């Protein structure tokens, strides 16, 4: 349809007016007709008809079924019981489930009596189930007046108080369709719609707001979710392609003395198959003539640093410098010490630059960097300062990239006339679904095996009431010559939060272990005091390290074999996984003990169960994504990327993969979208380039 009418300010829609328009803008971000069209319902009430069990669809609608209960049973679960009833009609069977009020429900349910049930269905293990259904006997039901199937829109407290109810939104939507005559141009090519049997755009938009049937609603949802995810993927893939075409990179053809000498004579252990594969992928990038932009994912302890070092050797062999940027001073120092140790028999010049580097040392570094005497510079954000000038930076490695914003990465690009190759490393495993959506413009390498000889860390959950046994276990480990981490979530007592704080914990540990040396580290200490304490622990002068999460990233003490996490329910899954990765770095068996009180939320239980069940970072990341959703995991600098209106990258994982596949196939055949059959895609993509929010242009 004429896109101009869709850009009409919402104030002009009949029934809105200035006050309502102001509220719609502030509360729901609805500024134009187009925004209103793309304000999608989040659920539906369907009391228009009765469904047979064999007609139920796997969508988010609520349905009404007539049938009878044939059997009721109590089922044990991890916490308490649930009540399950078998519900049948003449086409099949489903289950009704109750988690609360079971005694009353059981007493009132009648076997073999016809009931009308209403609620949202779940599909699990080949069977539909309905948790806590609305129920009434058919006899009662016949006495009631009923309304038709209706969409339920997201709302806010302010809107409800101001009288903008679901009914009002529904009326505005009807008015909008009258004014626009419901004409919407298709934004997907005929080839895609035919191949995937997608319903036309106009039908999808109409049925998402005014569903004519369950089946049409499912088709409308699929069509609009596919479209949203398809254009996000197209955008990311084109960005990646253009980057490779436009941004020329240094061609590192030479595999020379540094790389070969280290690989043949100084490698401390045999590389794993995964490390070899990743090095091959990086070598191919570095020799391609396009700028490398690669994300290297690998669990804690999987050997990313060796891969980074060998990549830096390729830069050195081709006459270039390399740098490694870490998010904290502690981690930068550790990388520095680790690389100096690995290169001690090589003629490689490695320097460290952090916020606390003295002026004299800085001057020397600036000078040597510019005249090319420094091969590898390791540091923190200090590397980004304008004063830091390289002679010829060829490769920049960024560790724990989610700690750095896009603007900071861009500063590294400007350290050379031709941007250096970029290798981004993270030990925070990113679920594949999220990686495809967030980093679709980066190439991704994964190290998915641990070096040989590493024993998996044993993880257990213990309640505060088991503390004495835990202390006894710590004493045994210290006798064996091992070291212990004890991590707390807070630095000082908070009246609102009844959690063990660090100072309290330190005192009780000191009382319990009077003969042991104890280090303490937290974020409010001055960095030299922090470094001093860390250093004592690294050298083995202290047996116990009491700390906050400042030790989360990167600290490497092979002799530390026990990680105790206090108030573990306070931590997110990826944080727990990162902390656990501080142990298990030597050949001995390591342990992670998650301490909590007895009162735990369901999410906390899921997190603790996941931690004790698996060491696989990717599995943990998938659970984390389901619990927290993509917004929290992405962090602020990425949050604009996935402002999804209808799709959900966790639940709609299959549609996401399908969308990415089709976007890739189209670009493989027609990279510039210049073929006649892709005309509509080219037009829509051009509109997209002008707007940040994809729904501003795909109506």
Feature tags:
OB fold (Dihydrolipoamide Acetyltransferase, E2P), 699 residues, globular, alpha/beta, 9-stranded mixed sheet, helicase, 5 domains, ATP hydrolysis activity, DNA polymerase, domain 1
> What is the name of the CATH architecture of the largest domain?
3-Layer(aba) Sandwich
**CATH-level-4 superfamily name of the largest domain:** P-loop containing nucleotide triphosphate hydrolases
What is the makeup of the main sheet?
9 strands, mixed
How many distinct folded domains? Answer: 5
Helical content stands at: 40-55%
Look up the CATH topology of the largest domain: Rossmann fold
Number of helices: 26
Given the helix and strand composition, which structural class is it?
Answer: alpha/beta
Cα(first) to Cα(last) distance is 8 Å
Strand share of the residues? 15-25%
Shape type: globular
Return Rg in Å.
30 Å
Highest CATH level, the class of the largest domain: Alpha Beta
Mean pLDDT, as a whole number? 85
Which runs of at least 5 residues are low in confidence (pLDDT < 50)? 495-499, 632-641
Got a strand count? 22
Structure description:
One of its GO terms (biological process) is DNA recombination. It is an enzyme of class 5 (isomerase). This is ATP-dependent DNA helicase RecG. The chain has 5 domains: 5-45 and 154-183, Orthogonal Bundle (DNA polymerase, domain 1), CATH 1.10.150; 48-145, OB fold (Dihydrolipoamide Acetyltransferase, E2P), CATH 2.40.50.140; 193-246 and 650-690, no CATH class; 257-447, Rossmann fold, CATH 3.40.50.300; 458-614, Rossmann fold (3-Layer(aba) Sandwich), CATH 3.40.50.300. Mean pLDDT is 85; it is low at 495-499 and 632-641. With 699 residues, the protein is an alpha/beta fold. 40% of the residues lie in helices and 18% in strands. Helix 11 packs antiparallel against helix 13. Strands 1, 2, 3, 4, 5, 6, 7, 8 and 9 form a 9-stranded mixed β-sheet that branches.
């Amino acid at each position: 349809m004429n896109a101009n009418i869709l850009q009409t300010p919402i104030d002009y829609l009949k029934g809105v007016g200035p006050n309502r328009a102001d509220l719609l803008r502030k509360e729901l971000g609805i500024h134009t007709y187009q925004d209103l069209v793309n304000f999608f319902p989040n659920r539906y009430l369907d009391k228009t008809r009765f469904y047979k069990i064999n007609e139920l669809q796997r969508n988010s609608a609520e349905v009404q079924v007539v049938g009878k209960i044939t059997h009721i049973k109590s089922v044990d679960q991890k916490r308490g019981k649930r009540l399950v009833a078998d519900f049948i009609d003449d086409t099949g069977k489903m289950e009704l489930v109750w988690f609360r009020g079971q005694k009353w429900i059981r007493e009132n349910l009648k076997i073999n009596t016809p009931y009308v049930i209403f609620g949202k269905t779940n599909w699990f293990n080949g069977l539909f189930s309905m948790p806590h259904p609305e129920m009434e006997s058919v006899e009662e039901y016949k006495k009631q007046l009923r309304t038709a199937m209706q969409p339920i829109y997201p709302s806010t407290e302010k809107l409800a108080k101001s009288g903008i109810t679901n009914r009002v939104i529904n009326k505005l939507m009807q008015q909008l369709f009258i004014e626009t005559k419901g004409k919407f141009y298709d934004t997907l090519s005929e080839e895609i719609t035919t191949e995937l049997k997608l319903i036309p755009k106009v039908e999808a938009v109409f049925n998402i707001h005014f569903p004519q049937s369950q089946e049409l609603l499912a088709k409308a949802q699929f069509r609009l979710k596919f479209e949203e995810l398809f254009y996000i993927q197209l955008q990311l893939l084109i960005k990646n392609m253009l980057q490779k075409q436009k941004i020329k990179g240094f061609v590192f053809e030479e595999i020379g003395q540094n790389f070969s000498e280290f690989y043949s004579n100084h490698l401390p252990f045999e590389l794993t198959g995964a490390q070899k594969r990743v090095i091959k992928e990086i070598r191919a990038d570095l020799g391609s003539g396009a700028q490398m932009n690669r994300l290297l994912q690998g669990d804690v302890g999987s050997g990313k640093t060796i891969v980074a070092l060998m990549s830096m050797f390729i830069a050195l062999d081709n006459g270039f410098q390399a740098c490694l940027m870490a998010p904290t001073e502690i981690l930068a120092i550790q990388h520095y010490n680790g690389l100096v140790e690995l290169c001690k028999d090589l003629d490689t010049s490695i320097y460290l630059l952090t916020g606390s580097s003295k002026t004299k040392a800085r001057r020397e570094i600036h000078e040597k960097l510019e005249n090319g005497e420094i091969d590898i510079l390791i540091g923190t954000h200090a590397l980004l300062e304008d004063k830091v000038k390289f002679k010829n930076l060829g490769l920049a490695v960024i560790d724990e990239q989610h700690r750095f914003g896009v603007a900071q990465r861009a500063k590294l690009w400007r350290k050379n006339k031709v941007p250096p190759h970029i290798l981004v490393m993270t030990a925070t495993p990113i679920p594949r679904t999220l990686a495809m959506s967030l980093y679709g413009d980066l190439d991704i390498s994964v190290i998915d095996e641990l070096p040989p000889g590493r024993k998996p860390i044993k993880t257990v959950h213990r309640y505060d009431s088991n503390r004495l046994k835990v202390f006894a276990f710590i004493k045994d480990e210290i006798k064996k010559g091992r070291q212990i981490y004890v991590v707390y979530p807070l630095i000082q007592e908070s009246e609102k939060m009844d959690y063990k704080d660090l100072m309290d914990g330190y005192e009780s540990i000191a009382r319990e272990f009077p003969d042991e040396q104890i280090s303490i580290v937290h974020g409010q200490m001055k960095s030299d005091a922090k470094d001093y304490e860390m250093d004592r622990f690294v050298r083995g002068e202290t047996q116990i390290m009491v700390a906050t999460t400042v030790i989360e990233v990167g600290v490497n003490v092979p002799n530390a074999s026990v990680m105790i996490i206090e108030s573990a329910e306070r931590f997110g899954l990826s944080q727990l996984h990162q902390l656990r990765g501080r142990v298990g770095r030597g050949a001995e068996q390591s342990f992670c003990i998650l301490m909590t009180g007895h009162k735990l939320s369901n999410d906390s239980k899921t997190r603790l169960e996941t931690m004790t069940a698996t060491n696989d970072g990717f599995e943990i990341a998938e659970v984390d994504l389901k619990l927290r959703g993509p917004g929290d995991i992405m962090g602020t600098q990425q949050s604009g990327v996935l402002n999804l209106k209808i799709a959900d990258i966790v639940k709609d994982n299959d549609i996401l993969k399908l969308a990415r596949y089709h976007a890739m196939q189209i670009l493989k055949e027609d990279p510039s979208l210049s073929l006649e059959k892709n005309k509509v895609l080219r037009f829509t993509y051009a509109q997209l380039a002008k707007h940040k929010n994809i729904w501003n242009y795909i109506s």
